[in-house]
Amino acid sequence: MERKACYRPAMTDMNGGIAWRISDAAVDYPTAVATMEARVEAIRKEGAPELVWLLEHPPLYTAGTSAEDGDLIAPSRFPVYRTGRGGRYTYHGPGQRVGYAMLDLKARCPDVRLYVQRLEDWLIRTLDRFNVRGEVRDGRIGVWVVRPDGSEAKIAALGVRVRRWVSYHGIALNVDPDLSHFGGIVPCGIRDYGVTSLADLGITATMADVDLALRETFAEVFGAEASEDERAA
């Protein structure tokens, strides 16, 4: 897939860098959405620093704007939240690192498709730090790996929303979640392929290891360095 180039502003154009927040305790979904929406407004109206927020959620399902009722197999298994992000049903839970990115795309590059490609690149570079080859597939959202038996499985999902050129929502990378929890939905509406994780592939990595890789590769992809960390929510 061809990757387009776009202007990357100097750090001085971006409030001195991007703030990072890492939450050690699981964050419930409504709280996360409310926090993101408040930050989006602060970035847009007040020039607040952009933010990347790394967290885990308790077990839950979210339904994106393209979600179909038939893809929710077990509606009573976990809480289900309708959300304004793009995409269909996905699962979040312990052992999965969620990365919510609140970025000023108007200043960086007002191109949503390019932004999604950059999120994919961010995940692919992160996986490469663990010697895992992540790939994208036409017609299949997310980042995929080829198992030793030749089958393909999704290891990371992404879904975004953009409000007046400020992004929110983001990515979800499976580190060591309970993969059986994905059985309550058709993940992203794709029935013919499974899901996997770093642990499922035999990769021993702590969440701290993954966080470090995400931070380093984010700078490579988005051309922005981190400012001081914010207090965890």
Summarize the structure.
With 233 residues, this protein is α/β, with parallel strands linked by helices.
Structure commentary:
The chain has 233 residues and is of the alpha/beta class. Helices cover 24% and strands 26% of the residues. Strands 1, 2, 6, 7, 8, 9, 10 and 11 form an eight-stranded mixed sheet that branches. A hairpin with a 2-residue loop joins strand 7 and strand 8 (140-146). Helix 3 (112-128) packs across helix 4. It is globular. The N and C termini lie far apart (37 Å). The model is unreliable at 9-15 (pLDDT under 50).
Task: Lay out the secondary structure.
Layout: E1 19-22, H1 29-46, E2 51-55, E3 60-63, E4 80-82, E5 89-92, E6 96-102, H2 105-108, H3 112-128, E7 135-137, E8 140-146, E9 152-163, E10 166-174, E11 194-195, H4 207-222
Parallel strand pairs: 1-2, 3-4, 9-11
Antiparallel strand pairs: 2-6, 3-5, 6-10, 7-8, 8-9, 9-10
Instruction: Count every helix, treating DSSP H or I runs of 4 or more residues as helices.
Output: 4
Low-confidence segments, ≥5 residues, pLDDT <50? 9-15
The dominant shape is: globular
Terminus-to-terminus distance: 37 Å
Q: Which whole number gives the mean pLDDT?
A: 90
Alpha-carbon Rg, integer: 17 Å
Provide the succession of SSEs. EHEEEEEHHEEEEEH
Number of strands: 11
**Class based on secondary structure composition and strand pairing:** alpha/beta
Strand content: 25-35%
Q: How would a crystallographer describe the biggest sheet?
A: 8 strands, mixed
Proportion in helices: 10-25%
